[in-house]
Amino acid sequence: MVRRADRTWKPVTWGEMADRIAYIAAFLIDRGLDRDIKSAVMSSTRVDWGLAGLGILAARGVLVPVYPGLAGESLAHILSHSDAQVLFVEHAQQLEAVLQVWDKLAIDTLVTIEPVDVRGSARRAGVDVDRIADRCFSLQQAEAIGAESLRRQPSLVEQRLGSIRLDDVSLLVYTSGTTGMPKGVLLTHRNLGINGGDWIQVNGTLLNEGDLDILWLPMSHIFGWGQFCLGNQLGFITYFSTPAEALTDMTELSPQVFMSVPAYWEKLAQMARSVADDEQRQWAELRRLTGGRLSFCLSGGAGLGLEVKEFFRAAGIMIIEGYGLTECSPTLTMNRIDDYDFESVGKPFPRVRVKLAPDGEILAKGDNCFSGYYKDEAATAAMFDAEGWLKTGDLGSFNHRGFLRIIGRKKEILVTAGGKNVPPQNIELRFRNDPLISQVVVYGDGKRYLTALVDIHEGTALELLQGAGESDPPSVRNHALIHRAIAERIELVNAGLASFETIKAFAIATAPLTPESGLLTVSLKVKRASVYDAYRDVLEGLYSSNNTQPS
């Protein structure tokens, strides 16, 4: 279901989807797309994203998802490094971002999903329109060309589909890039099929054809793309939403299925708790907010706090949490609805093997694991040990029941000047459910004590200030009351930590940490190195004599 301009919903049938995918595939075949040729899609989540993506795969091409907010060096890197020859963009703003780096690209077919004044965009980007006019098409034009091609050759797409092999590359997905420039993960149809089959084996009985599903996750991320493809296989009625509208749509549409990163589950819990102190009323409010019909809830992308999972369960809503990485297509482990441990990320999928290295690093093997990074033999070699086990970079432990627990990132361990090893995530996760705090990024490698950068929920901060009589504060981020409120929260967390783990000083981020700012990944994980670089002077300043010193 897609939203019309008048806010009503328009159905798109399976038959319409199949026809349009075939038209797009036929158009791309006419444009020369074939095995190993890369085609990128740069768009917000919408049905046309899925049609373009499946059209590329049906033409035996390689799909390269691109986050819709990318621009400049990051956009140029993905499109040039991938050798993309075809690109779908959503609207004029994205087209102009592409045209700004046009000289670095090898694009010979460019398709705009929405109507765009290509000449105007070219002028604004300083590109000679004659250089792109003969390779630029609207999606409507592309589908019309493909339909005509199929009229002449009815079996064109069917024959191409029949030539696809399991070990053909299906996706070239660029990692979120928490460190350095993104690397291109090559995933085959076999990798994705094995992992999708495991997913259905574990969860299939919990889902029914015709279940209502809200898809808002970025389809440029493997979580969002996977949700779209699973709905396509299992017969969900999918409503395409946006990050801003997803929670409102949930209340109005009453879905049975909802998949999300932790931030939205946390927001729902905060909203429900805010209505009353009585738990029964909070649970009732949570059921109202979620529409009252949720039967399958999946959280991924980062760890979800134990308190949130238990709050939902107490209200009669079970959230399943899994663990994986793009290189594993992506899931390695998952809790089951009848076999779970909320302090873990579950047990391995049926065709996945997981073990721990001597230093505690989580290692994985299986046909779901990728074979390497595109054009990066050194990074590929570094991802595997001598026996071919994939090195996840995460540290873990198994409990006595075989459930895997994530301890932290191997490369993100901070070593203080006193020689203490500190996994920063263990501290940061303790702030996960705080309604005022959006992110905490702990700092202090090689330092005598730890400090942190804190991002805030500005809406909650404003409510706090208004409650204290500040009707129109000039800046919530610089307000002394907000600083004191965060200091109090840090002291509460510090009380439960060893002395060397405590945060002795902090600064509030000057602007929200977002994917667009380059400080969060598209799945809302902190890009630690980028945050450290952006706020280096601020964080280093916390060690001056004018700031709080360790006791």
Task: Explain the overall architecture.
The structure is a single chain. The chain is α/β, with parallel strands linked by helices and about 550 residues long. The protein folds into three domains: about 1-165, 3-Layer(aba) Sandwich (Rossmann fold); about 195-410, ANL, N-terminal domain (Rossmann fold, 3-Layer(aba) Sandwich); about 415-540, 2-Layer Sandwich (GMP Synthetase, Chain A, domain 3). Helix content is about 35%, strand content about 20%. The chain contains 19 helices and 25 strands. It has a seven-stranded mixed sheet, sandwiched between helices. A five-stranded parallel sheet has the order 4-3-5-6-7, with helices on both faces. The protein has a four-stranded antiparallel sheet with strand order 17-18-19-20. It is globular, with a radius of gyration of 24 Å.
Distance between the termini: 58 Å
Number of helices: 19
Largest sheet: 7 strands, mixed
CATH superfamily of the largest domain: ANL, N-terminal domain
Overall shape: it is globular
> Which bin fits the share of residues in helices?
25-40%
Instruction: Tell me the Rg in angstroms.
Output: 24 Å
CATH fold descriptor of the largest domain: Rossmann fold
Low-pLDDT segments? none
CATH architecture of the largest domain: 3-Layer(aba) Sandwich
Return the CATH class of the largest domain: Alpha Beta
When the domains are counted, the total is 3
Proportion of residues in extended strands? 15-25%
What would the average pLDDT be, to the nearest integer? 91
Query: What multimeric state do the chains show?
Result: single chain
Structural class: alpha/beta
Q: How many β-strand runs?
A: 25
Strand order of the largest sheet: 11-10-12-13-14-15-16
